[in-house]
Amino acid sequence: MLTSKWHMHRMGLIDFWYYTNEEFYFKNGHILLRGSNGSGKSVTMQSFIPILLDGNKNSERLDAFGTKARKMETYLIDENSNRDERIAYLYLEFKREDSNIFKTIGMGMRARKNKPMETWYFVIEDNQRIGKDIQLMEHNLAISKQSLKNRIQNQFIETQREYMARVNQALFQFPTLDDYKESINLLVKLRSPKLSNSLKPTIINELLSESLQPLSEDDLRPLTEALSNMDEVQNRLEVLKQSQQAAKSIQNVYEQYNYALLDKKSLQYVEQKNKFDELTKKQKELTEQKNHANKMILEIKKQLDDINVEKSVLEEEYSGLAKQDLLQLASDVQRYKEDLTQQEKALKNKVQQESNKDNAYVSCKLKYDKQKDYNDSLEYEIHKSFKQLNQLNENMQFDEHISLKQEFLTNLNHDYDFNYTKSKIDKELSVLNQGLELFQKMNNQKVLLNHVQDDYAKEQSLLEQIETELKAYQEQFRLLKEEYHEKFLAWNESNQILKMDASTMKIFFEIISDYGNSERYYEIDQDIHNRYVWYLKNQTETISKLFIDIKQSINELKKIQEQYEYWNDLKDPQPDIAKEQEEARQYLEEKKIPFIPMYTLLDFDDSLNQDEKNTIEEQLLSSGLMLALIIPDIYQKEILNLPKGMKESFLFTHNKIEELEVYILHSKIDYNSLREAFGLSEGSVKFFDNGFEIGNICSVISQTRKSIFIGKASREAYRKSQLEKLREDINIKKAAIQKLESNLKIEQDKVKTLEKEYAAYPKKADLDSSLLDVNRMLLKQEHSIEQIKKYIEQRNQYQICIQNLNKEITNISEKLGVSNTEDVFRLRKDLFIEYKDELIQMESIHERHI
Fold first, then answer.
1. pTM for this prediction
2. To which H or E segment does residue 272 belong?
3. Is 451 left (phi over 0), alpha (psi -120 to 50) or beta?
4. Radius of gyration of the chain measured on its C-alpha atoms
5. DSSP letter assigned to residue 570
């Protein structure tokens, strides 16, 4: 799988320069620092790039101009600082582009006045992060070198070169450290300010050439061979071009020949066609001439015989002439071949002489190179052999090896006596062989002990198998409990209703972790069940209440819609009247007594304002005149005897009802004018600004009621306003019902979700099955342990015997200064044998060398 690229993600400064503990974050490996001149942008960036890439903190690396004006020490302690010692850290964090994998590189510095600065480095590759997993500050001070080393262990680096190698290996993977160093140098040059002023084309060419990866011999070999073959290819190309030209010339001639031949054949075809036609015509004539031709055959045959004789004579003369010409030509060819052969031999001799000279030179040079290579190879073999001896000595610690190294390697061109060294080796081998013999005796005793331990070993093997299976079951049980932790956590996080708080989940985890030691899983079942019942009860009550609210709202909506239909169908709105009045008017209609309410015959003058209209209508309404029924006075006696349970106010007119006209009201009510207009009898009614007087009763109006019923336009406006209000009420009520239904669906969905969540919580069946397997293996283990105890006493007796033999071996190993194990003895013996063989081989090579 291809891994994503590393990007710079975060850089940090700990107690460095003017920073106490500062972090800067990158966006996809990019960062923008803004600030005025002298605010520290350059110092901040130059403290990271390229210093943290290779650990080189020389002065010229701190200045973009390459001067030595700046030193790293001055960023920690300068001349004016009141601190005698300061520890600082710089770090640069990298992040994989597509995953949360981090690596951090950095360095620590300790500066003290009048002392050299101490530096150490680190490359953190275990995904620990500074400031989160690793703290570089304690009590507002940077931690010490040793503290950091204790925290990151083998990720701590002492030297700058090792740090550079680790950074390259962790992030860049250049083939060699030199390649990585060159890339850093190129980066330093490219960051120079005003780069275009100092870089000429030749310098740019050198920089780019140096940045290119060098070509190996394998890469260059095909190019060299191609260049060497270019001349040959060119010659072949010229020959092919000439051949092509000649072929084209031949082709042209052949085309002309073919055209001429075609023309000739065409003419012959036409001629033959004409002849065929003529012959066809003359066929009859030729048939007639046949007899004449037959007669002439004998004469023709005779003439033919004469011609044949003459032909034979001529052929013999021609044959003689041809043979003479061929002999002359053959003689000339033979002479030319001999001359050509002589010239070729002379040329071949010259070439052979030149080749012999080159071969002699090459042979001499090869002999010289071969001899030199041979001598170099012998010396190389000697050093190679001694390197092998060094590697062997690292495990042997042979004292004589140091003397051999000092005396032999410094005088390779002189004789050296290896006998003393070989005698030392033989003496060591003799002692090792004695020790190995004692090991053999002890092994024989162990063989005897093994016969006694057979039963013990079988039972022990069985116990180990049982314990292995037990561990597997226990591990499976442990992993299953961890899996249950994850299942409960995932179940709880995915829940919307059965949501457990942190304390409850902690209790659940404790119960699961302790499962097998205590039977408390029922507490989980009981807790979840109780919560389920409680939530279900609440949801059921909420749903029932919503059903009731929806039903009630639907009934209210129907009533409002009925009112809307009433007002929509109503032609002329009427004031509200009492039930007794309704019965009285129904009575009048049944008796066919004509009547008309006064307000239907009233209207306002256009000059009146709304306040005046409101006052007039309230005065008329309060006085009872507005709702009073105007009836012809001929019905007065009958009207005054209304049945019991009815009531109404009447105004008797001596005019006909159908002749009454609408009376226009002005700013003040003139009752006399009103009375005369409607043909009413006299009455003691007076109106003033805010009230009226009837007889001895004087009334004052509230001046709060609006004009509604006087004037047809007012009544129509009132009807429309009522319809608009009812429409709004209908919409509001529908929206309320829709919201209630939506809430009902939500609550019903919550019940379904609750059911699913309750059914989905992890049950303990898998835990019980796994625990049963563990307990079964524990019983087997207990039985096997009892069997093993029976064999322990017998085993102890034989072990005492082996211990006595081991004491003797220990005494010998102490004399040799090695561990008292057979492997050590054998390994040391093998090493000395290999050392001796290598020494003998080196001695042979050395003899050839000198």
1. 0.37
2. helix 230-396
3. alpha
4. 64
5. -
